[in-house]
Amino acid sequence: MTSASSGAPNFPAPSGPPAYPAPSGPPAMSAYGATASVVGEPTRPTIPLNKLAPEAALRRLELAIVRRLEGYLHGDHLGLLPGPGSDANDARVYQPGEDDVRRIDWAVTARTTVPYVRDTIADRELEVWALLDVTPSMNWGTEGVTKRDLGIAAVATIGFLSQKMGDRFGGYVMRPDRLRRLPARSGRSALYGLLRTMLTEPFVPDHATGSMSLAASVEQLSRHQRRRGLKVVVSDFLTPGDHELDPNVEPEWERPMRRLGVRNQVLAIEVVDKREVEFPDVGDMLIRDPETDFERYVNTADANARARMDAASAAQRERIRIALRRAGVGHIQLRTDRDWVQDIARFVLAYRRVAALLHQPPQGVEK
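That's the DUF58 domain-containing protein sequence above. Prediction below.
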């Protein structure tokens, strides 16, 4: 099914400034509300940088990291290599002159009558990479914020939740023709710089073509960022021309997501607009896809037509949910008509209980 988020009601375009006002814009444009957000292509962000994520509300939360990490700085996350830390590792025979006698494991020594020492696992720093989808289908929203800007807000929230001393945060921006890399850096200022770059990334016009897809982008992320860490994929997970609704048919991005999760802890953030899943009763409406040539008028005053469209949209979203679950990644759905900070906070609190089970590595792969 072609995404309803690609469609736009056939409203008359308002005159005056660009049809995508910022929240702090003049009252005249703010009065258009949802209408102004669907009649034209965006020209500027709908969320200012200082409103992306309230840091004060996130200070008591922490995103659970359960996969072991590679790094060099001692931090708050479990590493792969033995070294100074508090997490116990295997016991080994004591080597005189090399091992500290204070690390002798007396219980094992008493059972074997041979001196053993207990190694510990070093704590390491975390490296987070976020892949943000900015293709034309993300330039749409009916609740005062676009899916693209909601995705950036999700990246900001995850950044604030996961960042500690020495941790680094980097990003990739997926356009139809290329994948732009934003280097990983540590510190709050570097995170704000990355978010500012994402907000000011030029908007992709409708019907822009290119060879880059979500599957290819995830594949490149997995291939280029070999270091273990947290990977975040932010998208609507809609593939142009994919009309399949059967959950047993894998989307093309499912296998790359599964491969990405072999070495990393992966979190998929699905951004959805309200009118993608709840079609309004506004009479004749032009449904158009900004990524393909699909266009069709639909009479939304027909209750049966709305029910069929809502059912198809629900099946589409269910297929995405099942595919992400099969891939073994964390999944959170954010909607433009809801408080994304509250939704992420609720997810993080529940994630602590299921993260270790959800992100079990494949058999034969070290955790």
